[in-house]
Amino acid sequence: MVVGDISTGTDVAVIGAGPGGYVAAIRAAQEGLDVTLVERDAYGGVCLNHGCIPSKAFIHGADVAHEAGNAEELGIHADPAVDVAQMQEWKSGVVDRLTGGVEKLCKANGVNLVEGTATFADENKLRVAHDGEGQGSESIEFEHAIVATGSRPIRIPGFDFSDDPVLSSRDLLAMEAVPDRLVVVGAGYIGMELSTMLAKLGCEVTVVEMLEDVLPGYEDDVKRAVRKRAEELGIEFHFGEGASGWRGTPNGVVVTTETEDGMETEYAGDAVLVAVGRQPVTDTLELGAVGLEPNEDGFIETDHQARTEVDSIFAIGDVAGEPMLAHKASKEGVVAAEAAAGEPAALDYQAVPAAVFTDPEIGTVGMTEAEAEEAGFDPAVGQMPFNASGRALTMGDSDGFVRVVADAESGFVLGGQIVGPEASELVAELALAVEMGATLEDVAATIHTHPTLAEAVKEAAENAMGKAIHTLNR
Amino acid sequence: MVVGDISTGTDVAVIGAGPGGYVAAIRAAQEGLDVTLVERDAYGGVCLNHGCIPSKAFIHGADVAHEAGNAEELGIHADPAVDVAQMQEWKSGVVDRLTGGVEKLCKANGVNLVEGTATFADENKLRVAHDGEGQGSESIEFEHAIVATGSRPIRIPGFDFSDDPVLSSRDLLAMEAVPDRLVVVGAGYIGMELSTMLAKLGCEVTVVEMLEDVLPGYEDDVKRAVRKRAEELGIEFHFGEGASGWRGTPNGVVVTTETEDGMETEYAGDAVLVAVGRQPVTDTLELGAVGLEPNEDGFIETDHQARTEVDSIFAIGDVAGEPMLAHKASKEGVVAAEAAAGEPAALDYQAVPAAVFTDPEIGTVGMTEAEAEEAGFDPAVGQMPFNASGRALTMGDSDGFVRVVADAESGFVLGGQIVGPEASELVAELALAVEMGATLEDVAATIHTHPTLAEAVKEAAENAMGKAIHTLNR
Amino acid sequence: EPTEGRVFAPPSARRLARELGVDVAAVDGSGPGGRVTDADVRAHVESGGTADAADADAEAES
Ligand SMILES: Cc1cc2nc3c(=O)[nH]c(=O)nc-3n(C[C@H](O)[C@H](O)[C@H](O)COP(=O)(O)OP(=O)(O)OC[C@H]3O[C@@H](n4cnc5c(N)ncnc54)[C@H](O)[C@@H]3O)c2cc1C
Ligand SMILES: Cc1cc2nc3c(=O)[nH]c(=O)nc-3n(C[C@H](O)[C@H](O)[C@H](O)COP(=O)(O)OP(=O)(O)OC[C@H]3O[C@@H](n4cnc5c(N)ncnc54)[C@H](O)[C@@H]3O)c2cc1C
């Protein structure tokens, strides 16, 4: 490898072109800065290529097929045949279109695109190694660097993703056929989204999870709604069991689990999907060269402007801490770009909403009732079950609820938890309410179109005020 | 009929149990008033029994069937058979559940329910005629009355709904089979929603419309999106033609239309659906007895508290004016009830959002660009097409856009127009923004979950600020 | 004033103004873009501003 054969300078060097990096690059360019974006793999990062987008495409496909095959009550009789290779092709088309769009948007905004792996040489210089023998490398001098190297799946001992039957979410989303039987290790959001999708496509899914329930971090009634539907889809759960090993068999694999007490059980499948979480990618960077070190959780620490301890270097997205979500990455990207341009930008938002694309979906933002109490508020809580929503009933999909949490005294909306149809979309209104400092009354007094699911947000706010029409006030 | 055999007194008498009346009754009861609700037909009014709810149930059913049958690109191969009688039964189950719910909620809130037709005796007395011979009638003395008698379909000369092949939306929504061919008179929102639904269920639909386009009142690009999809579904449009007559044939009907120049054309169908608008119901009330008279459009005029010229009488919902929408009726119901209880309630909302459940859906709130200009604002307008939305692409449904209209100087969001998937739900966030006096920056700075359609609302706001990431700023 | 009649205030502030008999259109807004807040309504009352319910009602109608 030839080192340093080219050397260029730039105002802002962005490392990684995921939803953190490409957004930072575009916004920095919009601020009038000269920007260089280095990516070693694919524009759009994990999110567009192996995460958010492909998973949601498959989930949508599975939903269409499953809904059509299960609508006898509506008088619809269909027995859909699913060609997963074709679905894969469609998914890839969607991904290509979006990643192509990212590349075009970068160029249209004047961002210099460089392919290769970037490492730090010093506080103002990157080295970029180009892939392939004899491709050489280059140096990029920068005023500011923005690290957006993202995350990768956590490996558990004994399960190596390079072994064929041990699948990461990325491997799974590249499937050309639905496995007949799959063992899924981990009932977090990625494990649950993929398990639900696979079950709808006819796969027999066995989920093993070390903890005692699905979706750690969510409230019991939210978990329950998702677990119940998953069980109805035939997903088998084994809680309190950690995956300790696997062996190949003529038909696939047998996965061994162990309880805390050392009790072992075996589960057979065509393959095993390991989805136990993700860890930040810091080892591609030679952080030592700038004196930075990941914290004990592996993240690069940053301040309210996404700046690291090194003044010239920002870090954003999955590599910079929880929640590891695309829209958090993008927000940090915007703030880092504006800060690099000298604007008084800050990560001063109230809340990062989150969605889980299970069936039913989950959408949450801000505080739960318990969190509000912990924070010293006297919470007023209101709820509207979707089984009292006209729109949900006309969609044949009325499990779940909208809950709104507010400060009883001032009425300020502190958060909301939604589980049910379109929860991922409905949470947007509550996110605006939380961010704006809206009160329960503001939400309740806003006219909501009939018949919509969004009316349930209003009704939940009214319920918290003791003024609901369609539910009995508590 | 025996008159006046029973006489009771009540604080508030509500006439009509649609989304205006039942909401008014419940809220008045919550305010501690003694409330009597008189309904002559069915709890829930037009909306729950013959309007919003049954139409949306059928639209959903048609969507599921149509989507399943048209998802080859996604690798889903299905040829769904639709049993419309069964869909009808399902729809009726949904309606029964909701109307039963309304009755229960009224009772649980202590509302007295009276079945019969109410007419005014004087400014403080109603007469209620019970249906059926020998059922007698009763008098109800009231402090306040709330008129919520709704609307009925407009008849056009020569088309009598009592003739079998001349269908109202209500008749159509009671169908036990899909007509092979239908002539639809009127391309307003009800005509378009039902035509789209029928076309998806395999009906050959011919729409004749006096005006030159679909959906009067909407902007051209919004209309275009809906008309284009409708045409792709095989709906045939004939604009600039008014229906002048019909005659029965062995196979159904032939409808004659006439242009302004007197050119006649004939269209054949199994039946003809007349959906040319709705008119307020005031003739059931003997308004003369209290000295009230409908205005020239047939509506009862009201003030900012929904009060008529007679101090003791309020009017709400379709009978009280445009927009004739369920959620407008409910809002007026709440305000009238609170005003009757002596609260300083007022109809001081900024905007009534509206949705059209065509394919794609439409969701609008507040001002269009043109309306903003007319009102003296210097509008800043931003747009995000759904074909740049990751979520829309993963749903295989990326026609349409979100547009946000704001005041350039202050940044206040004045309105929005959405056409595309889930537009009816997405408009909720913009409605909150308009109602709260949110600025473009408030919407843009609020973190929106990825990947969602709601991100397009944020992106449109950013576009209006010249700061969009995923679209080129204009 | 071409855009007269339009007051940018959240529903809660508009209701407070009604309760206090204040014409919300007469209140100086201190929020972003001049948005009227609860505190602005209260300050308006304390500084001896309009407290005429009839005015407030008339304004609410527009
Ligand atoms: C299956 C799955 C589903 C998901 N679903 C969702 C969802 O629905 N919603 C959501 O919000 N999030 C979701 N996520 C999480 C989301 O993908 C991440 O939060 C997001 O991608 C983080 O963005 P980022 O920019 O920080 O990093 P990434 O997207 O991980 O991008 C980092 C980029 O940096 C590049 N890179 C790394 N090191 C270097 C280097 N030294 N030089 C050059 N390039 C380098 C990588 O090649 C990569 O392209 C999902 C993740 C998975 C796996
Ligand atoms: C096909 C169709 C689809 C629609 N879709 C939507 C939609 O998606 N969203 C939306 O917002 N709106 C929709 N609408 C409009 C919506 O139905 C009306 O705006 C709404 O029903 C108006 O409510 P209301 O309470 O004013 O009156 P109504 O719902 O019309 O109820 C009036 C009630 O008063 C009763 N009544 C009348 N006179 C008397 C009397 N003298 N004594 C006792 N009872 C009396 C009637 O029997 C009736 O039950 C739709 C309408 C139709 C026809």
Automatic annotation (TrEMBL), chains A, B:
Cofactor: how bound: Binds 1 FAD per subunit.
GO molecular function term, any single one: flavin adenine dinucleotide binding
Alphabetical keyword list: Disulfide bond, FAD, Flavoprotein, NAD, Oxidoreductase, Redox-active center
Alphabetical list of InterPro entries matching this protein: Class-I_Pyr_Nuc-Dis_Oxidored, FAD/NAD-bd_sf, FAD/NAD-binding_dom, FAD/NAD-linked_Rdtase_dimer_sf, Lipoamide_DH, Pyr_nuc-diS_OxRdtase, Pyr_nucl-diS_OxRdtase_dimer, Pyr_OxRdtase_I_AS
Cofactor(s) listed in the protein's UniProt record: FAD
Family per similarity comment: Belongs to the class-I pyridine nucleotide-disulfide oxidoreductase family.
Record protein name field: Dihydrolipoyl dehydrogenase
